[in-house]
Structure formats: structure tokens, C-alpha cells
């Protein structure tokens, strides 16, 4: 533990909850003077929630923030800037139609006789940017410069305004290698000036290049803080996707399934989304899909379900060739798909829980054969009870339910169609622990009933628990397949990391 | 059954209250307003007048409701009215039979709807832009059909649609009543209504659930085109002529207003055909009421705007939150209890 004088920013026991989930659970985070501190974790781990609590964009539910030794409580991002915490986001949040100088001094333009002193402003803007080795025409519109330059202008503004802590939220996501190098030179310079810098990214390569320490978040909790030099890449990935927990539930292993595959995909793929792959799924099998963000898991699911049409390969069900050109075609073949982004792709927010549950079944029957109201009520009540969907009644708009209950309602939508192949994309993301366990149990019981399932999850221990086989993906290709005793968190992490030895995550 | 009737009435209550208030206010200023009489087997009176004059907007509002429920909008309906009026007039004057004339006119309206629907559903153009195309071009097309003149006709069959009567009611009223009931039954007795609402709330999620999104979207615009065609025939039959410049002018705005007054959100989703019909009748009642009360005509538009603002305030979510707050303890205590785990 460091002494407090070393830390420029100390957040202790930060808590933040949203209806139905605990986004941050007693998170401790310490940032030293003059260090670059990488904040890592898969999507939904709580990185952005933590940042938003630090910058006042969210009000935290509990915990304290010490900045430079004094306790602070930023009410909003403006307040945080004033206190000394500046943030630069991936999407530059400056005004592209104003000049560079105007952007740098927006809201605090130097004045003379009550008017903006444009000449003084331009001069000071040039001086400010000279510190960043940038020689720009500050009177030109910001939009006329590249994203990288805009990024630096945003940093210059944030540092000039705040000057103690700089938060970089995925600043390199849209930059090329040359621009990243320029950005990193500036980050090192700021670090030498004693700023504390929080760096959020998905590129592990860059983490190793620039950061001094790494803090990993998972499910709203701190997994640990390590010195970058002492943490090898494999251990880092294990921290991000969770290996320690896996050891405990490894006994609950699903037995491999023998027999002929029901679903056979050969050389199946779509250019620009997922490289052609071969996939077999048997009845009563759960095929897990593991891989880091952007490795092609969701793309695989979408192409199997016809949300995007395959442009190569063949699909067969029990030896019969099928054309999965659209979700409707896939649904006709008794496929079901719970998408990853529940809110935009899953729920129909204003409609009731009942209507959401019967939607897919009704769509399959066609509009001329409506499901009677009595039958709708029976279906809705059945699944509300069977899946323990917590809602005041079946007529409540689904958007008012918690994440876990929305997820169960979407599952119910597909179960109502009596699917034979169910594809679940991150079925347990962003839901509370109780609902999480129920969904895992549901997956197991569906498998025992002989359904085929394909489950994508970032939680390795979960995949290990219910998968009969695990496919590992990286760089939009299927690269490894594990079955039987080879399914273990260690093996999965090994397979993911093997790929990442050579490139960005 | 009684509970369905009750939820239905609860949905229409604001519109019914607004309509009653307007009718009451006008009848104070203009005493003979509510009287009805039968002459030659047909009802006459200001109330019947409102229903009759309101026919085009009611019809447009029926189609507009379904389009708006899909999160769309159809700005072209006024122009389609002009096109269809012109088509009907030019066919009847060139010697075609009434049946042929009506069939072709309806087909033209449906064609306009298919055009809009294709732009929106297949080319994925924003509905406001997609339908603006036909709104602008439509009047030009209508002028081409009438060759720039007002095409008058004398066919008694076609005129009957505008000024005849059936079962004691003017023909336009009979037409919109029948058509409204057919459409309402069609969307609510089949699954169409729910699927359209699902598309309006979340098109992507609906598509992924297997809803045939493009076809239903096109169908919504086709219905709107069909409604505009019928409204166009009524408007032309009423004046026994087709005026390409003025037929249906600005009526798309009245139709949108009728839908909004009827309480259907422009953001799509939940809709009610009956409420939109009431909305259109409210607008017509205001129009007729102001004329009858003898206000100087220059006040008409302002009074109309004021009344509409009042109705919209009654429906605004903020007003509802404030209102719900007053009766909260009784209304929501139970659900929150059950939700808590």
C-alpha cells in the first residue's frame, strides 16, 4: 500500500447500483502522481461506471474520493474539471465547426472591453499547443484536422483546464499506428509533468507499451492492481475473464455428447464479418463460444441465425440442406436467438411482458392467425412462473423490468416457439447474481431435455460449467475446439492468449 | 368483456371529454347547434355537418395512424388525394363507367402507397423525406392529369359519393364509418396491430424475432394511400370536379394533428384508430364551431391553435406525472411491493 501523498487520486469503496444490478461493488482505485494507470475489463465490467463516478457524471451511492489529499465530491463533469479531473473520450467531444483556439478556450475566452480578444486567444492557443509540439493554424476549424490532432487538442484543453488527473477513455480506438505513437509521446510528457493518467483501452499491446500499473475490473469488482512489468499477458487475460473462480466449479462438468451432429455448417462465413468456419452441433449439446471482445463470437451467432446472410459455405440440418437467409428462415427451422444487446435488439420496450413473450411465436404463425388472448395469457403466465420473471403483472411494459427479468422474458419469447437450436449471446451480461444463476441452471436443464444450444459468454467459468464443447475464437476466426476434460479455464485462456501473443487483443 | 370495454373507454376518455367540451361551448354561443331534423329521409343539423365535412381528414387519419404507429409519417396524403381526385374526374369525363373509375382510382392510391413503402422499407429512407418526394411531386402529377384546369363532371353516380345519403346519413359519413370499422377490426382481430406496434417500438428487435418487417411497413403506407384515394374521391365528388391545386391541400397536417390529438405517439408504438377518428372529429368540430359562433374569421386559426395546445397539454407526460403524483399512494403501492425481492 502506498502512502497517501504518493497518490494524487484515491477512490475507496466506491459503490454504484442501477435497478437490478450492482455496477460497482466497493471498488478501491488509487492513482499515483506521474503514472499511467491502465483500467481494464471486458464490456460491462464497470470501467465506464467507475470513470463516470470519478468525473461526477454519475452520483455514486457510497465511498469517498480523495484528490490531492482532500476529499472531493464532484457534482457534475464541469465541477470535476474545475477540481482537476479532466476527461478525453474516444469520440472527441469538442465542436468541429469552431476554430482550434475557440475550442481550447471555449467558455473562458480572454476578454478585452467585454469582447472576446481573438488575438490574445489565438496567441495563447499557439503557446499552449507548442507544449505538445504541435504547430497548427489555430484559426482553422477543428474539423479540418485529423482525429488524432483533435484528440490532442482535447487533451490540451483538458490538461489546461484541470491539470491533476487526466482520464483517457479509449483514445486510440480510431487512430493508426503512427498517430498512436504521437499520442503516446504526449502522454509520456504529461506523465513527466506529474499528472496522474488513467488509460482505458481494449488494446493490450498498448497497455504494455505505455502503462506503469494495471487495474482490472470484473462484474463491478476490482480483480486486482498489478505493476505492468510484473504481469504477464496470460495472467492479465485470466484476470480479465476470470480463471480463479473457475477452479471451484470445474467439477460440474458437462459430459461430452456422442452421435451424429444434427446441425452441420461447412465453410460457413461472410466476408468482413467472420472467416469461414466448420461447426457441428448435436442434440443435447451446449457449444460454448469463448474469445475476447471483437473476436467474432457475435458475428458467428448472427450469421447462424440469418441476421447477416452467409456468403460462403453450406448449412445442413439432419443431412437436409437449408438456406438461412433471414431470421424468419432460421426461425422456420426452429432456431432461436437471444441477442447480446438486449435493449436495441431484444426487448420491444413499450409493449407488455405478455406481448414480448408471444412476439416470435406470433410472427412465425403470421398475422392472419392471431394467438387468442386467452392463449397469450396462458403462455405469459406459464413462463412468468417457470422462469420466475419478477413483474407486477403480465401487462407491465417490459422496459420497466430489471435487466435480468428482461433477459428471462426474451428467453421465454424463444422457448414459447419450442426451438430446437437456441443461440444465446451473452445471456448473463449485466444482470444480477440471482438471475445469473437461474439462467445458468436453465441452460443446463434445456440441454438435458435434448435441445441444442450455442452460448457465447465472456465469463469463462460459466462456459466451463455448462459447455459440452468450447470453440475459441480470435481475429474473427474459429481457432480452437476443446472438449471433454480439455474444457478448463486454463486451457481456454491458453487458447485465447496463444493468439494474442502476436497482436492486439 | 366488461373490463375490455372499460379499458377501451379509459383510452378514449380524454378525446371524449375534449369533444364534449367543444360541443357544449359552441352550443352556448350558437343555440341551434345540437338540433337534428329529418328531411327527405336524411338527417340534417350541425352535428351531421361536422361528421360530413370531417370525412376526408377522418379517412386520412385512419391511414396516418397505422403509418405513425410504425414510427413513420406520410406527408404525401394531401397530394395523393389530389392525384386520385384528378384520376377519377378525368376517367369519368372520358366516358368510363363508375366501377372502372373507382377501381382505377383506388389502384392509383395503392400504387402511391407502394412507392412510399418501398422508399421507406426497402431503401431505408427516413419516412419524412421519402413521403416528401410524393408530396411535392404529387400535385404536379395531378396537374398533368387535369391538364392544368379544374376538371368538372356531371356523373350522378360519382356525385352520389359526395352528396348522396344512405340510411339517413350522408354518404361520406357512411363510407368513413364503414371503412374505419373494417380497418379497426382488421388490425385488432388479427395480429397485425401488435406486429405493427412492435415494429414501431423496435424495428430491429422485431426483425430478429421473425416479424416480416418490410412487408408490414409497405402495407402501412399502402393503407395510407388507399385512405387518401377514398378521401380524394369524396372531395372531388363533393364539388363535382377535381382541383389539382387545392384538393387536399394541407390536409396531411390536419391528419397528423388528428392522430396526435387522438393520443398516438409520433415515436410509434401503441395506436388507436378510434381515438384518431375522434381526433379528426374534434378538429372538424372546432372548425365548424368557430364558423358558426360568428367570430371574425381572422380569429379562427388562433382559436383552433389554442384549443389544440390545451388538448395536447392534457395529454403531455409531464402533466400526467404531476397528476399521477397526486393519486400515487393508492395507485402504485401494490406493484412496487411485489417487485421488491
From TrEMBL, chain A:
**Highest taxon, organism lineage:** Bacteria
Q: Does the keyword Lipid metabolism apply?
A: no
Checking CDD domains in the record gives: ABC_Carb_Monos_I, ABC_Carb_Monos_II
Q: Where is the ABC transporter domain?
A: 9-244, 257-500
Entries under InterPro entries matching the protein: AAA+_ATPase, ABC_carbohydrate_import_ATPase, ABC_transporter-like_ATP-bd, ABC_transporter-like_CS, P-loop_NTPase, YtfR-like
Q: Which UniProt keywords apply?
A: ATP-binding, Cell membrane, Membrane, Nucleotide-binding, Repeat, Sugar transport, Translocase, Transport
Question: Chief subcellular site?
Answer: membrane
Task: List where in the cell it is found.
Answer: Cell membrane
Q: How does it sit in the membrane?
A: Peripheral membrane protein
Spell out the Gene3D superfamilies in the cross-references. P-loop containing nucleotide triphosphate hydrolases (3.40.50.300)
**Pfam families from the entry?**
ABC_tran (PF00005)
Q: Mind naming one GO cellular-component term on file for this protein?
A: plasma membrane
Instruction: Supply one GO molecular-function term.
Output: ATP binding
In which family does this protein belong, per the annotation?
A: Belongs to the ABC transporter superfamily.
Protein name, entry field: Sugar ABC transporter ATP-binding protein
Query: What organism is listed for this UniProt entry?
Result: Sinorhizobium saheli
From TrEMBL, chain B:
Superkingdom of this entry's organism? Bacteria
Question: Any idea where this protein resides?
Answer: Cell membrane
Q: Which molecular function term from Gene Ontology is one that the record holds?
A: transmembrane transporter activity
Keywords, in A-Z order: Cell membrane, Membrane, Transmembrane, Transmembrane helix
Q: Which InterPro entries match?
A: ABC_transp_permease
Mode of membrane association: Multi-pass membrane protein
Keyword Kinase tagged: no
List the transmembrane segments: 12-34, 54-70, 77-96, 102-121, 128-146, 166-187, 208-237, 249-267, 274-295, 301-326
Say where the protein is mainly found.
membrane
GO cellular component terms, semicolon-separated: plasma membrane
Record's protein name: Sugar ABC transporter permease
Which organism is this entry from? Answer: Sinorhizobium saheli
Amino acid at each position: 500500500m502506498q502512502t497517501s501523498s504518493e497518490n494524487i487520486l484515491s477512490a475507496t469503496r466506491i459503490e454504484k447500483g442501477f435497478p437490478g444490478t450492482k455496477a460497482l461493488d466497493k471498488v478501491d482505485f488509487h492513482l499515483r502522481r506521474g503514472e499511467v494507470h491502465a483500467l481494464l475489463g471486458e464490456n460491462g465490467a464497470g470501467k465506464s461506471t467507475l470513470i463516470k463516478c470519478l468525473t461526477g457524471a454519475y452520483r455514486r451511492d457510497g465511498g469517498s474520493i480523495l484528490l490531492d489529499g482532500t476529499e472531493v465530491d464532484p457534482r457534475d463533469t464541469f465541477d470535476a474539471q474545475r477540481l482537476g479531473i479532466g476527461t478525453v473520450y474516444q469520440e472527441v467531444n469538442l465542436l468541429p465547426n469552431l476554430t482550434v483556439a475557440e475550442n481550447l478556450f471555449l467558455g473562458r475566452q480572454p476578454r478585452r472591453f467585454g469582447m472576446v480578444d481573438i488575438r490574445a486567444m489565438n496567441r495563447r492557443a499557439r503557446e499552449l499547443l507548442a507544449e505538445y509540439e504541435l504547430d497548427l493554424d489555430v484559426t482553422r476549424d477543428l474539423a479540418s484536422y485529423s482525429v488524432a490532432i483533435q484528440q490532442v487538442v482535447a487533451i490540451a484543453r483538458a490538461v489546461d483546464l484541470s491539470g491533476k488527473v487526466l482520464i483517457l477513455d479509449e483514445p486510440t480506438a480510431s487512430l493508426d499506428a503512427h498517430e498512436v505513437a504521437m499520442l503516446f509521446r504526449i502522454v509520456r510528457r504529461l506523465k513527466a509533468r506529474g499528472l496522474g493518467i488513467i488509460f482505458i483501452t481494449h488494446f493490450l499491446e498498448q497497455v504494455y507499451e505505455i502503462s506503469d500499473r494495471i487495474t482490472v475490473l470484473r462484474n463491478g469488482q476490482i480483480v486486482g492492481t498489478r505493476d505492468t512489468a510484473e504481469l504477464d499477458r496470460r495472467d492479465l487475460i485470466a484476470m480479465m475473464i476470470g480463471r480463479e473462480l473457475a477452479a471451484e466449479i470445474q467439477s460440474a462438468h458437462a459430459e461430452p455428447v456422442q452421435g451424429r451432429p444434427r446441425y452441420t455448417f461447412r465453410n460457413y462465413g461472410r466476408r468482413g464479418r467472420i472467416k469461414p468456419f466448420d461447426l457441428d452441433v448435436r442434440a443435447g449439446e451446449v457449444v460454448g463460444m469463448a474469445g475476447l471482445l471483437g473476436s467474432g463470437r457475435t458475428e458467428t451467432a448472427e450469421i447462424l441465425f440469418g441476421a447477416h446472410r452467409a456468403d460462403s459455405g453450406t448449412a445442413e440440418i439432419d443431412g437436409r440442406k437449408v438456406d438461412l437467409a433471414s431470421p424468419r428462415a432460421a426461425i422456420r427451422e426452429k432456431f432461436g436467438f437471444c441477442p447480446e444487446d438486449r435493449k436495441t435488439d431484444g426487448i420491444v420496450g413499450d409493449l407488455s411482458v405478455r406481448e414480448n413473450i408471444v412476439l416470435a411465436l406470433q410472427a412465425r404463425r403470421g398475422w392472419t392467425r392471431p394467438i387468442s388472448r386467452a392463449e397469450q395469457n396462458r403462455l405469459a403466465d406459464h413462463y412468468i412462473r417457470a422462469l420466475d420473471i419478477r413483474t407486477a403483472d403480465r401487462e407491465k411494459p417490459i422496459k420497466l423490468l430489471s435487466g435480468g427479468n428482461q433477459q428471462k422474458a426474451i428467453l421465454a419469447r424463444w422457448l414459447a416457439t419450442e426451438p430446437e437450436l437456441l443461440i444465446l449471446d451473452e445471456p448473463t451480461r449485466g444482470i444480477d447474481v440471482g438471475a445469473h444463476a437461474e439462467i445458468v441452471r436453465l441452460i443446463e436443464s434445456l440441454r438435458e431435455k435434448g435441445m441444442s444450444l450455442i452460448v457465447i459468454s465472456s465469463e469463462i467459468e460459466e462456459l466451463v460449467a455448462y459447455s459440452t464443447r468450447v470453440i475459441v475464437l480470435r481475429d474473427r476466426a474459429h481457432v480452437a475446439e476443446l472438449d471433454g476434460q480439455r474444457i478448463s479455464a486454463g486451457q481456454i485462456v491458453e487458447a485465447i492468449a496463444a493468439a494474442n501473443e502476436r497482436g492486439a487483443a | 368483456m366488461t373490463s375490455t370495454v372499460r379499458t377501451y373507454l379509459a383510452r378514449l376518455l380524454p378525446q371524449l371529454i375534449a369533444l364534449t367540451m367543444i360541443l357544449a361551448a359552441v352550443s352556448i354561443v350558437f343555440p341551434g347547434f345540437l338540433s337534428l331534423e329529418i328531411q327527405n329521409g336524411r338527417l340534417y343539423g350541425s352535428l351531421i355537418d361536422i361528421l360530413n365535412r370531417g370525412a376526408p381528414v377522418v379517412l386520412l387519419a385512419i391511414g396516418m395512424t397505422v403509418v405513425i404507429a410504425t414510427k413513420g409519417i406520410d406527408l404525401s396524403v394531401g397530394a395523393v388525394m389530389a392525384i386520385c381526385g384528378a384520376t377519377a374526374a378525368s376517367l369519368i369525363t372520358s366516358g368510363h363507367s363508375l366501377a372502372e373509375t373507382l377501381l382505377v382510382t383506388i389502384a392509383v392510391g395503392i400504387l402511391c402507397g407502394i412507392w412510399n413503402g418501398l422508399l421507406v422499407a426497402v431503401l431505408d429512407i427516413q419516412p419524412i423525406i421519402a413521403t416528401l418526394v410524393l408530396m411535392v411531386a404529387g400535385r404536379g402529377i395531378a396537374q398533368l392529369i387535369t391538364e392544368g384546369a379544374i376538371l368538372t363532371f356531371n356523373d350522378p353516380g360519382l356525385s352520389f359519393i359526395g352528396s348522396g345519403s344512405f340510411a339517413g346519413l350522408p354518404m361520406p359519413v357512411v363510407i368513413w364509418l364503414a371503412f374505419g370499422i373494417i380497418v379497426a377490426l382488421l388490425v385488432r382481430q388479427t395480429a397485425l396491430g401488435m406486429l405493427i406496434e412492435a415494429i414501431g417500438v423496435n424495428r430491429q428487435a422485431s426483425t430478429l424475432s421473425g416479424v416480416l418487417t418490410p412487408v408490414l411497413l409497405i402495407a402501412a403506407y399502402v393503407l395510407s394511400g388507399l385512405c387518401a384515394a377514398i378521401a380524394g374521391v369524396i372531395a372531388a365528388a363533393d364539388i363535382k370536379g377535381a382541383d389539382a391545386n387545392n384538393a387536399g391541400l394541407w390536409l396531411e397536417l390536419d391528419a397528423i394533428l388528428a392522430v396526435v390529438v387522438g393520443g398516438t405517439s409520433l415515436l410509434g408504438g401503441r395506436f388507436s384508430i378510434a381515438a384518431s377518428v375522434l381526433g379528426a372529429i374534434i378538429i372538424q368540430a372546432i372548425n365548424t364551431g368557430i364558423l358558426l359562433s360568428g367570430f371574425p374569421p381572422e380569429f379562427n386559426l388562433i382559436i383552433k391553435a389554442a384549443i389544440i395546445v390545451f388538448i395536447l397539454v392534457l395529454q403531455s407526460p409531464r402533466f400526467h406525472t404531476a397528476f399521477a403524483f397526486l393519486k400515487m399512494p393508492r395507485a402504485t403501492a401494490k406493484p412496487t411491493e411485489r417487485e421488491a425481492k
